[in-house]
Amino acid sequence: MRPMLGLLLPLLLLAPAARAELHEGRMLNRNATGGMVYEPDFLRLRPGDRVRFLATHATHNAASMPEMLPEGAAPFKGGINEEIEVTFTQEGLYGIKCIPHYAMGMVMLVQVGDAPVTPAQIPQALPERVRQRLGEILRRAE
Ligand SMILES: [Cu+2]
């Protein structure tokens, strides 16, 4: 009995419970839904999943929105044309923006965890174009 358990235990410890996934988000000048967009513009992740923001077109970046950052989550800010990889550990809804094109509504949403997303989670204080774009994203995501 004992020698057998001694062989199995290390193997069980090596088996990952749930493998974290790597997702990709492309930063684009235009796609079928409009101009200055992330594609996809909504991702639902499990805690520990990562997103790689790809500088597919020039002059974009990816930065967390302070108004839409779950409590305890670390803010992040990629440089212009910089591909960054972000690990999302805290559950909740994250707003992500392209700083040069924020006023044009270049934003995306990342929901970590199973909680539903609702338009009530969009802060009133955001610029009109940003709230409009976030509303469109949420309506498609619901
Ligand atoms: Cu941009």
How does this structure look, described?
The protein has 142 residues and is of the alpha/beta class. It has one domain (21-141): Immunoglobulin-like (Sandwich), CATH 2.60.40. Helices cover 19% and strands 30% of the residues. The strands form two sheets. The chain has a four-stranded mixed sheet with strand order 2-1-4-6, with no helix packed on it. The protein is globular, with a radius of gyration of 18 Å. The protein starts with a helix and ends with a helix. Bound molecules: copper (II) ion (CU). Copper (II) ion is lined by residues 36, 60, 98, 100-101, 106. One of its GO terms (molecular function) is electron transfer activity. Cu cation binds at residues 60, 98, 101, 106. Keywords: Copper, Electron transport, Metal-binding, Periplasm, Signal, Transport. Its cofactor is Cu cation.
User: What is the helical fraction, as a range of percent?
Assistant: 10-25%
- Would you identify the CATH H-level superfamily? Cupredoxins -  blue copper proteins
Class by SSE composition: alpha/beta
The shape is globular
Terminal CA distance: 52 Å
Nearest-integer average pLDDT: 91
Write the H/E string, N to C. Answer: HEEEEEEEEH
**Ligand species:** copper (II) ion
| Spatial sequence of strands, sheet with the most strands | 2-1-4-6
CATH architecture: Sandwich
What is the radius of gyration computed over CA atoms, rounded to a whole number of angstroms? 18 Å
Would you give the CATH topology? Immunoglobulin-like
Q: Domains counted in the coordinates: how many?
A: 1
Major sheet characteristics: 4 strands, mixed
Q: What's the count of strands?
A: 8
User: Which regions have little confidence, pLDDT < 50, spanning 5+ residues?
Assistant: none
CATH level 1 class label: Mainly Beta
Percent range for β-strand residues: 25-35%
Binding site for Cu cation: 60, 98, 101, 106
Signal peptide: 1-20
GO cellular component, one term: periplasmic space
Pfam family, one: Copper-bind
